[in-house]
UniProtKB/TrEMBL annotation:
<feature type="binding site">
    <location>
        <position position="592"/>
    </location>
    <ligand>
        <name>ATP</name>
    </ligand>
</feature>
<dbReference type="InterPro" id="IPR006539">
    <property type="entry name" value="P-type_ATPase_IV"/>
</dbReference>
<comment type="function">
    <text>Catalytic component of a P4-ATPase flippase complex which catalyzes the hydrolysis of ATP coupled to the transport of aminophospholipids, phosphatidylserines (PS) and phosphatidylethanolamines (PE), from the outer to the inner leaflet of the plasma membrane. Major PS-flippase in immune cell subsets. In erythrocyte plasma membrane, it is required to maintain PS in the inner leaflet preventing its exposure on the surface.</text>
</comment>
<keyword id="KW-0460">Magnesium</keyword>
<dbReference type="InterPro" id="IPR023214">
    <property type="entry name" value="HAD_sf"/>
</dbReference>
<dbReference type="GO" id="GO:0016887">
    <property type="term" value="F:ATP hydrolysis activity"/>
</dbReference>
<feature type="transmembrane region" description="Helical">
    <location>
        <begin position="906"/>
        <end position="926"/>
    </location>
</feature>
<feature type="transmembrane region" description="Helical">
    <location>
        <begin position="345"/>
        <end position="364"/>
    </location>
</feature>
<dbReference type="GO" id="GO:0005886">
    <property type="term" value="C:plasma membrane"/>
</dbReference>
<keyword id="KW-0813">Transport</keyword>
<feature type="binding site">
    <location>
        <position position="673"/>
    </location>
    <ligand>
        <name>ATP</name>
    </ligand>
</feature>
<keyword id="KW-0547">Nucleotide-binding</keyword>
<protein>
    <recommendedName>
        <fullName>Phospholipid-transporting ATPase</fullName>
        <ecNumber>7.6.2.1</ecNumber>
    </recommendedName>
</protein>
<feature type="binding site">
    <location>
        <position position="674"/>
    </location>
    <ligand>
        <name>ATP</name>
    </ligand>
</feature>
<feature type="binding site">
    <location>
        <position position="795"/>
    </location>
    <ligand>
        <name>ATP</name>
    </ligand>
</feature>
<keyword id="KW-1003">Cell membrane</keyword>
<feature type="transmembrane region" description="Helical">
    <location>
        <begin position="956"/>
        <end position="978"/>
    </location>
</feature>
Amino acid sequence: NLLFPLSLGQCAGEEKRVGTRTVFVGNHPVSETEAYPAQRFCDNRIVSSKYTLWNFLPKNLFEQFRRIANFYFLIIFLVQVTVDTPTSPVTSGLPLFFVITVTAIKQGYEDWLRHRADNEVNKSTVYIIENAKRVRKESEKIKVGDVVEVQADETFPCDLILLSSGTSDGTCYVTTASLDGESNCKTHYAVHDTIALCTAESIDTLRATIECEQPQPDLYKFVGRINIYSNSLEAVARSLGPENLLLKGATLKNTKKIYGVAVYTGMETKMALNYQGKSQKRSAVEKSINAFLIVYLFILLTKAAVCTTLKYVWQSNPYNDEPWYNQKTQKERETLKVLKMFTDFLSFMVLFNFIIPVSMYVTVEMQKFLGSFFISWDKDFYDEEINEGALVNTSDLNEELGQVDYVFTDKTGTLTENSMEFIECSIDGCKYNGVTEEVDGLSQTDGPLTHFDKDREELFLRALCLCHTVEMKTNDTVDGATESAEFTYVSSSPDEIALVKGAKKFGFTFLGTRNGHMRVENQRKEIEEYELLHTLHFDSVRRRMSVIVKTQIGEIYLFCKGADSAVFPRVPVDEIEPTKRHVEHSAMDGYRTLCVAFKKITPDDYEKINRQLVEVKLALQDREEKMEKVFDDIETNMNLIGATAVEDKLQDQAAETIDALHAAGLKVWVLTGDKMETAKSTCYACRLFQTGTELLELTTKSIEECERKEDRLHELLIEYRKKLLREFPKRMTRDPTSGKAWTDQEYGLIIDGSTLSLILNSSQDSSSNNYKSIFLQICMKCTAVLCCRMAPLQKAQIVRMVKNLKGSPITLSIGDGANDVSMILESHVGIGIKGKEGRQAARNSDYSVPKFKHLKKLLLAHGHLYYVRIAHLVQYFFYKNLCFILPQFLYQFFCGFSQQPLYDAAYLTMYNICFTSLPILAYSLLEQHINIDTLTSEPRLYMNISGNAMLQLGPFLYWTFLAAFEGTVFFFGTYFLFQTSSLEDNGKVYGNWTFGTIVFTVLVFTVTLKLALDTRFWTWINHFVIWGSLAFYVFFSFFWGGIIWPFLKQQRMYFVFAQMLSSVSTWLAIVFLIFISLFPEILLIVLKNVRRRSARVRTKFIL
């Protein structure tokens, strides 16, 4: 089933669930004499949680230490514990403990919520029929085979086969909103033999077995059969399909009660099998972080190696190696020099290890998680029609929204409303518009009018009233429709409702199905009844559906409707041409077209067809393949009646959105299963193609001219490539200031599914093995690409092909239907539209929005800001840690490479956790360097950050050199201050801890004020965290120095900070060094502002 997302690849564990299972209804043996086999199925408990109380600690720690940074810090911590290192194990142990603890608490809380939700479900009350009585039980106690009673508005506690309902015809209405988001009612059916069993007593008398497939995750697929045993013990077999299966999580609506037998329970229900997560997508920023980590790890190793080498160069002088006041012990003299060098190298690694920012991962995670709420809270994404806003299914890709290069969009329901209106039709080559005349039916616009036309007209309208899966739902209560009651049509396809309403407008009204009979009111207000014998359901491979019905006088007809490509090959050639002309004309007007055909079936032929259908419907293995073959045989030798044209209106602001995406430098491709003419018309309407765009076609029509299609395709590919390569240099040099890269002739490409198959699966001879590369060269140089007649898997192939291009462009797919799921999962970022084709796309996407127009703000504003914020966060983290460690490195040149720490252990520990963490978190959540309205109104600004611009080598080197400059200023500025023998009037000399504290004070103030300089959008939160962090540093230093907390008298920092601030020289030095450090930044800001102002003046002058 191509419509289902998870069936595209094998589900985990699916290979173990091969074969069938047998379920005894009510857990009763089918006869007293037969032995009752013990059944082993899982219980009905749902477990969505990841941890238990016992395994939480080991399992969570194992998962966290799989992260390379966490593991690195664990190794450093163990080195500090085992080797005599210059800093306490607390300095790396405490930050690591903090990171691990915060992450564990977050994951533990999330898992506790899952446990709580599981318990609510597992402990809910259900009623089981046991010994002809209703027995109250907890949901988790349900066993496979139990008969369960479900009342109106209750959810089904497990997957049930419907046995009977409160309605006389054994039907029930169900909503599956919690499963696939579809809020419309779906009708499910009981098999005819069990409809009458409507009480606990009667249902308990049922002796039956159900044979069905093992559990699998496809919500829309079920294969089974029920064997009902009567007193004679002769089993009557009836087929079971998805229409008989009630899924766990769905809700019973408009039906008093139902009885159903449990076939799948607990973790084997379809809902539970769909819990499995999608493949993990990683953003470009994450890859940049890893690259930067490697660079900084290299810097760390270099520093450690340089210091170790210079230490032994320094110690090559015997006086430096063993001064008279620090003689070596015997053990130290006997230690191997290589071992000593290795431990010294490890000690330097420990001393400089803070250059790797362990807390960055926690900050990035918090930024992504908290930042995602801004999308959910955005009122501009709220849609009053569906009463919903945007939804974030994964927060890991927020910044990727600001890096998109290619947008792949579906057409129907994404660019268009998927709100269908019947416009016109063609019957036997005569075109009719949508104007009614009282009883005479359709208003003819061309062709001769004869009595024959009237008969065919009625046949056509009957076909529209009968060939569909529309249900009629009365608006008062439910037990079937009455002619006088108010009613609405319900269907999973808006096309079908449009056609039924179209027929109603012309005098043929569908009145619903009652007891297997479809009722139609004709133009003469007479009620016609047709027995519905079989429905040959629509699927995306056949692209058609059929019904077999019997009239009141016993005649049997097959009515079929489907795409022209699916119907024309099955009707006589001479009937095609007149209708084909109208179909093509309607498609060019942008309408969706369907062809309608019929055939009369003789009783003998029907007996054969019925036997085949019953046989394949009872098959448990390969049922779908067998049914497809039988359907194919039945739907032959039909007669074409006509065609319909339905309008699908363009979505509000779809054209403006595509214009904005083009102006932002994004390439937009439309991938649709629709006809080329319809899709082309829509592309013009939504401005994907401009009026001046020259279209290059690679379609079945354009390559059919030649006997060997591959040769013709190769010719066209070469021709188009030459044309584009000749034009492209001209276009690129015209107007570099324009938002577009094309300013002269624009080109658009149109390709269909069958031609794409030829390109992707071309034979490997020398003339055709380069089809794909030529095709991609053409695509790259086209303004826009339209791919029509695409199967769902072909959509995914296109996305994969572009993803693998040189430079690995970032792709985004947006769609609303199940047929879009494959491309949504394939692309870097998947967007689901909460449309009218169900919610499969929204459920499988990374983000879901109500309308296509919301894509504009999502990318140009939210995506832009998310990227800028997180890029700044990453660069800032590496910058502030290099500022932190560089003075420590320089200090080694002045302390004989003795591994003496420059900073106190408390400062080392708290620098990343407390003193500098909150300002950058607030910045990364709230910063708006450009106003949101400006970002949406000026799409070109998006190009400024494309290609991961802020995390390229240039910006990285700028931040690194800035950190190196500032770190050097901190150290040598303080060093020159200490050239004076005394900093106080009383002649007291300061020590090494005062030296380190002055450097650290300048460091904390500089990196925090640097962030303040970068902030363009100030809120009270920014003010609070920036000035609050500086105040906290001062407070902590007084506290740690024993002034606020006298019990800290014994440690080495006692009164150091207070004494340091008592010197005027120190105050002046701190202020001066902060200014010198920030001066390049201030100068840069001033120059930028001057340039911006002069540009504005120049613009005004030109205007």
